[in-house]
Amino acid sequence: MRTHVVDHPLVAHKLTVLRDEGTDSPTFRRLADELVTLLAYEATRDVRVEPMDIRTPVTTTTGVRLSSPKPLVVPILRAGLGMLDGMTRLLPTAEVGFLGMVRDEGTLLASTYATRLPDDLAGRQCYVLDPMLATGGTLAAAVRLLADRGAGPVTCIALLAAPEGITRMQHELDGITGRDGSPLDVRVVVAALDERLNEQGYIVPGLGDAGDRLYGTVS
Ligand code: URA
C-alpha cells in the first residue's frame, strides 16, 4: 500500500481552518469540499484514459478521455458524503456507489449496514472517500469488500490519517490480490498524517468528529 501526503500550502491552510474548533458547520462543509477537490487532483493522477481524436478550430489532434468502465467513487456513509461533491467535480462522469459503515465506539470495530455497489467490479478503478483514517478498520474493510467484487486499483482519500491506521491497513491488506492474482494496488491520499490516536480512537491533533462537524450532532 502506498501513502501519499499532499504537501501544498493551500491544502495546509484549508486543513488549519477545518481543525479550528471555532469553524462552524457551513464553513467546514465548504472547506472540506474544496480540500477534497485538491486531494482528488493528486488522487486521480493514475486514472485510466484512452486516446481520442478531436478537431480544434485549427487542425485535428489527439487528446484523451476517461476509459471504460468509468471509475467508481464510493463515499462511506455518513461523513464520506461530505466529500462526494468535491470528488465528482473533478470526475463528473464517474459512477457513485455507497457503503454504510459504522464504528462501534467501544470496540472501535467497523461493521457494514448498507451496500449499494455493482456486484461485478472487475477492473473498476475505485475511489473510496472517508474523511478520517483513524484505526484503519473501516477503510481496510471497505477495500476488502471492493476487492472481493474484483475492483482495482483502489485509492482511498481521507482528510487526515493516524499512523496507527496506516500501519493497520498495511497489515490487513498485505497479501490481498486483485482478480488476476497480482497484488491489489491500494493507495491512500491524505492532507496530513497526524501524531496518534487517543484512547477514544480520535485522531490527535485531528479535527474532532468529522460527521458531527459536517452535519451537526444527531442524538
Ligand atoms: N472519526 C472522526 O470523525 N474523528 C476522529 O478523530 C476519528 C474517527
Model description:
This protein is of the alpha/beta class and 219 residues long. It has a single domain, classed as Rossmann fold (3-Layer(aba) Sandwich). Helix content is 29%, strand content 30%. The chain is built from 6 helices and 13 strands. A hairpin with a 6-residue loop joins strand 6 and strand 7. Helix 1 runs antiparallel to helix 2 and helix 4 runs parallel beside helix 5. The longest helix is centred in the N-terminal third of the chain and has 19 residues. It is globular. The termini are far apart. Uracil binds next to helix 6.
Strand proportion, as a percent range, falls in: 25-35%
Helices and strands, in order, run as EHHEEEHEEEEEHEHEEEH
Specify the structural class.
Answer: alpha/beta
C-alpha end-to-end distance: 37 Å
- Major beta-sheet overview: 9 strands, mixed
Keyphrases for this structure?
219 residues; alpha/beta; Rossmann fold; nine-stranded mixed beta sheet; two-stranded antiparallel ribbon; 29% helix; globular; binds uracil; uracil phosphoribosyltransferase activity; UPRT; allosteric enzyme; nucleotide-binding
Summarize the topology.
Layout: E1 2-5, H1 9-19, H2 25-43, E2 49-55, E3 60-66, E4 72-77, H3 84-88, E5 95-96, E6 98-103, E7 110-116, E8 126-129, E9 132-133, H4 137-148, E10 154-161, H5 163-173, E11 186-193, E12 196-197, E13 203-204, H6 210-215
Parallel strand pairs: 1-11, 4-5, 4-6, 4-8, 8-10, 9-10, 10-11
Antiparallel strand pairs: 2-3, 6-7, 12-13
The structure holds uracil.
Function: Catalyzes the conversion of uracil and 5-phospho-alpha-D-ribose 1-diphosphate (PRPP) to UMP and diphosphate.
GO molecular function, one term: uracil phosphoribosyltransferase activity
Pathway: Pyrimidine metabolism; UMP biosynthesis via salvage pathway; UMP from uracil: step 1/1
